[in-house]
Design brief:
Blueprint: E1 6-10, H1 15-26, E2 30-35, H2 38-45, E3 51-55, H3 61-74, E4 80-83, E5 89-90, H4 98-126, E6 129-134, H5 147-167, E7 172-179, E8 192-193, H6 202-215, H7 223-235, E9 242-245, H8 247-266, H9 268-272
Parallel strand pairs: 1-2, 1-4, 2-3, 4-6, 5-8, 6-7, 7-9
Helix pairs in contact: 1-7, 3-4, 4-5
The structure holds NADP nicotinamide-adenine-dinucleotide phosphate.
The site of NADP nicotinamide-adenine-dinucleotide phosphate has 27 residues, from α1.
Keywords: Oxidoreductase
GO molecular function, one term: oxidoreductase activity
Protein name: Oxidoreductase
Length: 276
């Protein structure tokens, strides 16, 4: 087995966070997992003597620094932070209030950044560490009806990539992990859905909303296999800055990059016409 590490994973109550915690514990890592309820903490700690639970909502920004300092003092140095906590907002942009966008960015972006800012002083002092940010194929491609979600994941992809360049000299790696569709609670209990209000969007969006509800729980991706892929990235001497998970993500992101390249070329003369 690779050397034992201490992982701090946000959102270990279900889905990827739970699967990664289980797989990490099975190969001898220690896991500090955040949850949002005392009962979920007890349940998580019952998994293993090496499982420590912490109750933390990642939008409780003022609590994050102290929570991380406490983990460093009581459990030990955090080798790996996995920013996994997040959820999907679904709704046509024109129909969805700004408050929905703020909440989406508070959890998926600001919460993740607050966690990174809390662990970085410790990792920088040690000149080692690894941060994994769970983004999404929605951080590369877009679909109608999840504009705020895609916006949040594009933001986290960009922040991850830039941070990776800032902290590489200190021996700290940053990996943005972008899964395709996996069998978690994402499209079920965790998703927030803005109610419909503008009938002009019915033809476009009603089939999309219905299809996502019907597909929930039957997606292609296995979270356990995703967890094993993340552990491989954690064990790597030179972890990637970007890691796609799932053949759906691979195909869709490749198509997007190719279409983007084609459009850039089609407009190249206009693009370069502004120099001088
Ligand atoms: P999930 O089963 O719904 O798990 C989400 C986890 O995040 C839960 O533990 C949840 O805690 C936690 N969480 C949500 N809001 C939180 C907050 N404000 N503070 C702290 N914890 C919070 O779904 P999942 O698919 O595993 O989601 C994990 C990550 O993967 C998310 O960032 C998601 O966007 C991303 N992702 C998922 C897919 C997919 O197809 N499943 C694809 C691409 C990316 P509670 O139990 O308390 O709600």
């Amino acid at each position: 087995m690779a050397s034992s590490k201490t992982l701090l994973i946000t959102g270990v109550s279900s889905g990827f966070g739970r699967a990664l915690a289980r797989e990490a514990l099975a190969v001898g890592h220690k896991v500090v997992g955040t949850v949002r309820r005392a009962e979920a903490k007890r349940e998580f700690e019952s998994l293993s003597a090496d499982a420590w639970g912490r109750v933390l909502d990642v939008t409780d920004f003022d609590a994050i620094d102290d929570a991380v300092a406490d983990i460093e003092a009581s459990v030990g140095p955090i080798d790996v932070l996995v920013n996994n906590a997040g959820y999907g907002h679904e709704g046509i942009m024109e129909e969805s209030p700004l408050s929905d966008m703020r909440q989406q960015f508070d959890v998926n972006v600001f919460g993740a950044v607050a966690m990174m800012k809390a662990v970085l002083p410790f990792m920088r002092a040690r000149r080692r560490g690894h941060i994994l940010n769970i983004t999404s194929m929605g951080g590369y491609i877009t679909m109608p009806g999840i504009a705020y979600y895609c916006g949040s994941k594009f933001a986290l992809e960009g922040i991850s990539e830039a941070l990776g360049k800032e902290v590489k000299p200190f021996g700290i790696a940053v990996t943005a992990v972008a899964p395709g569709s996996f069998r978690t609670d994402w499209a079920g209990r965790s998703m927030t859905r803005t109610p419909r209000s503008i009938s002009d969007y019915d033809d476009l969006f009603n089939p999309i909303r219905q299809a996502r509800e019907e597909k929930s729980g039957k997606q292609l991706g296995d979270p356990r296999k995703a967890a094993q892929a993340m552990l491989a990235a954690i064990a790597a001497d030179r972890p990637p800055a970007h890691l796609l998970l799932g053949s759906d993500a691979l195909g869709l992101v490749r198509d997007k990059l190719s279409a983007l390249s084609t459009e850039i070329s089609a407009w190249e003369a206009t693009t370069v016409s502004t120099d001088g």
